[in-house]
Amino acid sequence: MPLQLRPKEQILDALLSSLLAGNIVTDINQISVIRQFCEGVAATQADLDYDLYAMLQGWYITTAEGLDLDIRGRDHGLARDPGQPASDPVRFTALTGWIDDVPLLAPQVVQATLADGSTVLYRSLGDTRLLPSGRSVSGPAPATTLTSGVNDHLTVNLDGDGPRLILLGTQTTGVGIAAALQAAVRALTANTASHQTAYTNFRADYGVTTAGAYTLRAGTAGITSSVVVTASPSQDASVPLKLGQTSGGIEQAGMASIEVPVLCDQLGVIGNVGTGQINQLVTAVPGVVSVANPLMFSNGREPASDDAYRQDLQAYLLSLGRGTEDAIERAVAHTVGDDGQRHVLSSQVVYGAGTIQAYICDGRSLTVGAQPDVIQDVQDELDGLGQEPGGWVPGGNRAGVASATVLTVNVAVQVVLGPTPDLVRAQVAIRNAIYTQLYQWGVGQSMSYSQITRIIDQTVVEVFDVRFTQPTQWSLTPPVPVGGAVGQKLMPGTITVTVTRA
């Protein structure tokens, strides 16, 4: 039988009635000793009942709060979600014509400036290297001596400018060979004027970039630059030198840019920024001309509130059985990528005969449902190649993961307000609320006219009327929901909000 809380007055009435019924006392006036004693007993009993009730409530997942809820969650094996800082790649672009390797030692600090003028910092997660020009590395055990007129002839072709004959003369060391090669190439005039920088800035070293090997770099940067060194037809230099692609070397294309994973300094949604909003390198790096995030940052989360934690606990308990629908849906939503962060914003799982199809959205783009890396992470998790050995798919079933199909929703709405709200602030607030609602909407879920008008009504006081011209489905009578197809994700497009007084 559940504990019933009784107010002090009800307990007091019960005590006095019991005393009178037993003919124990007759004086229960307000100033009597017996009445005062009963008042104290009733107050104490009411306090004890409330304390017991509060303690019991703290033991139930559905009613526990704060630390009590944390204790209950840990008892069941699930701690409260501590939140997550935003993370994703930032693109470092090389300076045009830069030919040296650019070491990007962690932490590289980049910065975004928010609409209110405040700044947010992000730091790279590991060391990387930007290789802005083409290079050709020699094969194993290259010779370190040359005999003039016997094995000192090479042919070079820089960025497709055409083969050029090089004579290196007598050299007794690997360093000497590299220096002679560099000097000879720099002395040449390009066949095509636009390729001259490939000659002028040509670089050659021995044992610097790759131990015991020659490394050649063209003087132009970018993915199309190249260095090709071959043996001369008249004098075979390939055996002692082994330079270039045709002589056993490995030719690498230059890099115009490199994407470096970064993590926001601050926990929560403050690190979620739009494409290109991270655009400042806090400390300049020679050879880097610019930084920018090619995708939106969308996976920053605030620590879970009591209500969110309670829902997460209930979902977690339902998902403990391997291969169940609850388990699969939770596995999809909580997949962790190689960077240790979660990237799935929303998902829909569809079940068929022996098949399970998951449609996911990572929120990193308003036009593409999910990037390939997130799709692969979820697929690996379901197949047992992720965090959970054995995967989540029941025996005899196959699982597939695909990007959600984006349905861009353009919104044009006129909102009629009362006399109190500030029109400028109301307009901005309504626009942001509509954008957020569409962005966070689940995969496969339709959105009705009443759902979006409720959001507007909750955002601004004194909303008298809401009239949509876009989407056209909400201008019909009666209005028709938007979206809802399997694997379809609503995303905000152009949002136009007009506010007027009633």
Structure description:
This protein is an alpha+beta fold and 502 residues long. The protein has 5 domains: 8-75, no CATH class; 85-131 and 256-292, no CATH class; 133-252, Immunoglobulin-like (Sandwich), CATH 2.60.40; 319-403, GMP Synthetase, Chain A, domain 3, CATH 3.30.300; 406-501. It is 26% helix and 28% strand. It has 11 helices and 23 strands. The strands form 7 sheets. It has a 6-stranded antiparallel sheet with strand order 14-3-4-13-1-15, with no helix packed on it. The chain has a 4-stranded antiparallel sheet with strand order 9-10-6-12. α1 (8-21) crosses α2 (33-57) and α10 packs across α11 (449-459). It is elongated. The model has no long low-confidence stretch (mean pLDDT 88).
List keywords for this structure.
5 domains, 4-stranded antiparallel β-sheet, alpha+beta, Immunoglobulin-like, 502 residues, 6-stranded antiparallel β-sheet, 23 strands, 28% strand
- Average per-residue pLDDT, rounded, comes to 88
Low-confidence stretches: none
Give the total of beta strands: 23
Structural class category: alpha+beta
What is the fold's blueprint, element by element?
Elements: H1 8-21, H2 33-57, H3 66-75, E1 85-94, E2 102-104, E3 109-113, E4 119-124, E5 128-130, E6 133-137, E7 153-158, E8 164-167, H4 174-186, H5 196-200, E9 203-206, E10 214-221, E11 227-231, H6 238-241, E12 250-252, E13 257-267, E14 278-281, E15 288-292, H7 306-318, H8 325-333, E16 346-352, E17 355-361, H9 372-383, E18 398-403, E19 405-417, H10 423-439, E20 446-447, H11 449-459, E21 463-470, E22 482-483, E23 488-501
Parallel strand pairs: 17-18, 19-23
Antiparallel strand pairs: 1-13, 1-15, 2-5, 3-4, 3-14, 4-13, 6-10, 6-12, 7-8, 7-11, 9-10, 16-17, 19-21, 20-22
